Amino acid sequence: MRRILFLLFLLPLFATAQKKQITLEDIYKKGTFRGEFIPGFSSEGIDSLVKPADVKDENGKQLNIGDFILSPDKKNVLIAAGREFIYRRSSKEYVYLHNIADKSTKKLDTVKLMHPSFSPDGSKVAFVKANNLYVYDLKTGTTKAVTTDGKWNHIINGNCDWVYEEEFEFTQAYDWSPKGNFIAYYKFDETDVKEYEFTQFDNAHNNQYSYKYPKAGDNNSKVEIHIYDVNGGKDVKAQYETGDIYIPRIKWTKDDNNLVVYWLNRHQDDLKLLLTNAQTGAASTLYEEKNKYFVEINDDWWYLKDGKNFLFTSEMSGYRQLYLYGLDGKTKLQVTKGNYEVTEVNGVDETNKLIYYTAAYPRPMDRNLFVTDFAGKKNWQLTQGEAWHRVELNDNFTQFQDYKSDLNTPQSVTLNNIVITKKKDVTASLVKSLGDNSKLRTKLDEYAVGKAEFIRVPNSKGDTLNGWMLKPTDFDPAKKYPVLFCNYGGPGSQQVANRFGAVSMWHQLLAEKGFIVVSVDNTGTGFRGEEFKKKTYLQLGKFEIEDQIDAAKYLSKLSYVDPSNIGHWGWSFGGFMSSLAITKGSDVFSAAIAVAPVTNWRYYDNIYTERYMRTPQENAKGYDDNSPINFTDRIKGKYLLIHGTADDNVHFQNSVQMVKALVKSNIDFESAYYPDKNHGISGGLDNTTFHLWSKMTNWILTNMGNSNTATPAATSTKPKPF
Fold first, then answer.
1. Is 91 part of a structural domain of the chain?
2. Between 20 and 30 A from 75 (CA), which of 17, 91, 407, 600?
């Protein structure tokens, strides 16, 4: 009996031993853990309208029709070929116009274009070429230049400058009016903006790439909004207070004659919506919001078909909630209320006067779908539980697809009906399952994949921080394990989320090799209310790293944690945090990897940095007291610094200046640079992605491993020549 009990006790260990071990090749080369793709309602194809064989270029070669724009009247298609990405959101491509009826295909221009779009009636196409805006008339086959003064690094029409694209998160800087009579467009004058330059390496003499990048405290582009009369050819300038300001959005109301220009001061704490006449450019203030910190900019602005009201989200109550205001200034209604955040407006059903929205509820790390009436008197929850529901509605608001997962469970997708009862209550009913990632679930079951758990960590300020912890697969509480913090921590971000993928397969690989992997969302992260997020104002990095240090101290007291082996890894803002961890947190963090880090906020762009810090001229102490570059002399542990030389976002300059400071402080460190790689430092064909993650993995095993962890992979070597 005793022998049988002993064998039964060992069965779980045998089962674990028989499981496969995750490899870097599985994650970064083979795609072993790739999930199932379930298209949404908006994934409209053109296969029923266009035969691929009918779409050929000027040389008779068949074009790939996968990258397309269908005209509103479904008579024509724009096909993109040879897409070339520029920055994070911008690209250019050859554009072909295909007529569905006569099967003809025409190349719109001999060079690559940006932002092609049909007019609302499908009769015209606007696009940007060489910093100028053009309109092509399908009926006459002629192209007309809306602007002619575009010039690289000086004037941009219809496209964003670098900092607007990155920080206000859009790149097409023009928009058709609802009926297509007007085009409103941005004109950026970059003349007074300083240039940043980096080397593009080749086999000859290299190339210097220069572009306009305003760092903290620098001059910005001068921005004008123009409104072009497509039929009459008249161009007027929108009227607003000029100077050191931003125009983060322009949006048309449902009235073809009314454009809303969003005006924001440089401190980003005063937002005005200016209702602008399309024919004259004259404007009046529709709405103004001021904030003691800063006003969040997003796309949740809906101008209703009734022509009388607009819907938006705001943090004015302390949490991001929904508001309905009248264009006449009389109606001012808060539609949703509560100590939770509205994270997305999924759709506005104007027929039934219902707003569908997603909220971080019941916990900040969860997401659920809700619907409310316009008056905010009734509110219904359509998805349930502690989980992550990403929802997509169909166009007539009768159904939604629910993409559901949690921290340890892969995504499943269901189709659901939206039912409006006779009493005008709204409920959801399951129609069918569309997929449950069965192949991925089976594959995961073959491997020694661990189960992560949510943790609550106290900080020294009296707050409780949300986190997750992944323990080694064969965890033994009698042993002591090294801990790796995986942290981003930037303003409004969230890594501690109840969705599959928040704990990555790389995290699982490290856990298999004997590491405890932890992520803690510090002060300044999102979805816990305005005060928690904006507490870091004017001192970016201070409370954030203090929280990471507090969390490390808390975990170091656990019996199964090796307190001498606590490391920190991060990318971008996370790299900034890792650099602070090994400097300001040197008493508790023994190792850190910083990938593409900001090392001094003086080196980063002004829109992002000044939103939280104001300018260096106004807040020198806030910049200097929290920049890791100023604290290299405190480093006691191991430090790995990684950067791409062609990073247009967080410049390679950050790491170069950090190295200078490390050398001056006589600190030993390791570094790796990736030639011609941008902020993402990726590449499959040239092996960059695999090399990067292999390097970090082996570095962690070498510099943080103990008797309970695996040894680093052997590095292949060739005999050295004599």
1. no
2. 91
Distance, CA of 565 to CA of 588 (rounded, Å): 9
Do 691 and 615 share a domain, yes or no? yes
Note the pLDDT tens digit of each residue in 590-626.
Answer: 999 999 999 999 999 999 999 999 999 999 999 999 9
What crossing angle do the helices spanning 505-512 and 688-704 adopt, rounded to 10°?
30
Residues 252 and 267 in one domain: yes
- Under 8 Å between Cβ of 263 and 316: no
Q: What span, in angstroms and rounded, lies between the C-alpha atoms of 578 and 572?
A: 10
Are 407 and 514 members of one domain? no
pLDDT digits (tens, 9 = 90+) for 623-673: 999 999 999 999 999 999 999 999 999 999 999 999 999 999 999 999 999
Asked if residue 79 is part of any domain, the answer here is no
Q: Is 523 exposed, middle or buried (0-12, 13-18, 19+ CB in 10 A)?
A: buried
Q: Is there a domain that residue 717 lies in?
A: no
**What is the domain extent for residue 576?**
450-704
The burial class, CB within 10 Å (0-12 / 13-18 / 19+), for 59 is exposed
**pLDDT tens string 559-586:** 999 999 999 999 999 999 999 999 999 9
**Structural domain total, the chain:** 3
- What CA–CA distance (Å, rounded) separates 406 from 384? 12
DSSP state of 630: G
Does residue 252 form part of some domain?
yes
Alpha helices in 84-202 (DSSP H): 162-167
